[in-house]
From TrEMBL:
Organism of this sequence: Amnibacterium setariae
Gene Ontology MF annotations: oxidoreductase activity
Keyword annotations: NADP
The protein's name in its UniProt record: NADPH:quinone reductase
Gene3D superfamilies hit by this protein: Medium-chain alcohol dehydrogenases, catalytic domain, NAD(P)-binding Rossmann-like Domain
Lineage summary: Bacteria, Bacillati, Actinomycetota, Actinomycetes, Micrococcales
Taxonomy, superkingdom: Bacteria
The Enoyl reductase (ER) domain, residue ranges: 10-317
Length: 320
């Protein structure tokens, strides 16, 4: 099969493209003929070594993708051969991800893609969608509640906003400047370059029930100012790995801080997230703008684009 890989960590130039043996599914696994491979910042950080050293002597990157099941191993459902699926977690604790013509994953990680849902959207669900679902629903239903979503144009946050709206919540989103355009699923936008706490409290005078947080260190004071008593801050990222927190304001509001590491969510939570994401996509409740679809041999350019703040939208590889 044609694939991309790296044998050592470093800049995007360490990525190679060539031929590797076709993988074969083992017990409880399925093989997917990949049509789109989704790239996340975490894939880039694994390649650079920001998270840890090389877990394997060679890595085919990317955890997300979409394609068609073309083979199954013992114990997997042979009736699924020929079905379109979206894949999540392919390279989580595994060597071979979706930047290849074929990927083998445990059967639950290949989720049936509803008819009418595009390959581009399917490839953009994956880890961002699973993380977004946990951020929104990890503490129960949100119907009738108010959810604040920071950085609402990001891959995770945009899906979180749409899922919260799909779940019956009123969604407030933060953006950098007041000139930002509307975002699907978001009732109101609040600009961080003004007085965001006052703006949020004008929209939700009693405070917000849940906060989806992309920068816990930068937004801790704002979050403490607007969280309702017994509210939840679900954080999936921070710039400073030792963020300072306004302890007493959060304590007096009985605030829960939920930290989200998608690779290690409970299996039941991942399964529920996958089912809900597919249902919401089938209902037309989700979109994931795509900035670029590049061929496999331009994977280094795609990795650089993922980390470029001027690039808005998902970056995908076409595996063709």
């Amino acid at each position: 099969m044609r694939a991309a890989w790296y044998d050592t960590q470093g800049p995007s130039s360490v990525l190679q493209v060539g031929e590797l043996p076709d993988p074969e599914p083992g017990e409880g696994e399925v093989r997917v003929r990949v049509t789109r491979s989704g790239i996340n910042p975490g894939d880039v950080k694994k390649r650079t070594g920001e998270y840890s050293g090389m877990a394997y002597p060679r890595v085919v990157p990317h955890s997300d993708g979409v394609g068609v099941i073309d083979a199954v191993g013992p114990g997997a459902d042979a009736a699924r051969i020929g079905r379109r699926v979206w894949v999540h977690g392919a390279q989580s604790y595994r060597q071979l991800g979706t930047a290849a013509e074929y990927v083998v994953v445990p059967e639950p990680l290949a989720v049936d893609l509803p008819d009418g849902v595009s390959d581009d959207l399917g490839a953009a669900l994956g880890i961002p969608g699973i993380t977004a679902h946990r951020a929104v629903f990890g503490d129960g239903p949100v119907s009738g509640s108010t959810v604040l979503v920071h950085g609402v144009r990001g891959a995770v946050s945009s899906l979180a906003a749409q899922l919260a709206a799909w779940g019956g919540a009123t969604v407030i989103g933060t953006v950098r400047t007041a000139t930002s355009a509307a975002v699907r699923g978001v009732s109101s936008l609040v600009a961080l370059d003004d007085d965001p706490a006052a703006a949020v409290l004008r929209l939700a005078p009693g405070g917000v029930d849940r906060i989806v947080e992309v920068a816990l260190d930068a937004n801790a004071d704002l979050d403490a100012a607007v969280i309702r008593n017994l509210g939840v801050i679900a954080a999936y990222a921070t710039h400073d790995d030792r963020p300072g927190l306004p302890f007493w304001p959060m304590l007096f509001q009985n605030t829960t801080i939920r930290l989200l590491g998608s690779d290690d969510f409970p299996e039941a939570a991942k399964a529920q997230a996958a089912a809900d994401l597919s249902a919401a996509a089938a209902a037309g409740a989700l979109e994931a703008p795509v900035a670029a679809v590049l061929p496999l041999d331009r994977i280094a350019e795609a990795h650089d684009a993922v980390m470029d703040p001027a690039v808005h939208g998902r970056v995908l590889l076409s595996i063709d």
